[in-house]
Automatic annotation (TrEMBL):
Main subcellular location: membrane
UniProt source species: Paramagnetospirillum marisnigri
Transmembrane annotation, as ranges: none
Localization, UniProt: Membrane
UniProt KW Membrane keyword: yes
Protein name stated in the entry: Oxidoreductase
Keywords tagged on the record: Electron transport, Membrane, Respiratory chain, Transit peptide, Transport
GO-annotated cellular components: membrane
Pfam families: NDUS4 (PF04800)
Superkingdom of the source species: Bacteria
Length: 102
């Protein structure tokens, strides 16, 4: 069984580096394709392992769990955080380009 280990990105509703950004997640790869339900039209699958998301404090703990259970795992490195320096005073610059003003 194939699993992936990664650190999830923070949601748009989070500020700072809290929440999901600290934990690592182990997820099973989907084994069966999703099919629409005839009555409701919802997507579903017979594969219940695709619903599992196991959280760990570190990547090493997730890898140790995968090795212990005999799972083939793939670790995805987290993307480097790109932060643009911003200055509040730039909002009031006299040479600032303004769109919508002719």
């Amino acid at each position: 069984m194939q699993v992936r280990i990664y650190r999830p990105a923070k949601t748009a509703m989070q500020s700072g580096r809290s929440g999901n950004a600290k934990s690592w997640v182990l997820e099973y790869e989907p084994a069966a394709p999703k099919q629409p339900d005839n009555l409701m039209g919802w997507l579903g699958s017979d594969d219940t392992r695709s619903q599992l998301r196991i959280k760990f404090d570190s990547c090493d703990a997730a890898v140790a769990f995968a090795k212990k259970k005999g799972l083939d795992y793939q670790v995805f490195a987290e993307n480097a955080r790109q932060q643009k320096p911003k200055n509040y005073a730039d909002n009031f610059r006299y040479d600032k380009l303004e769109f919508g003003r002719f």
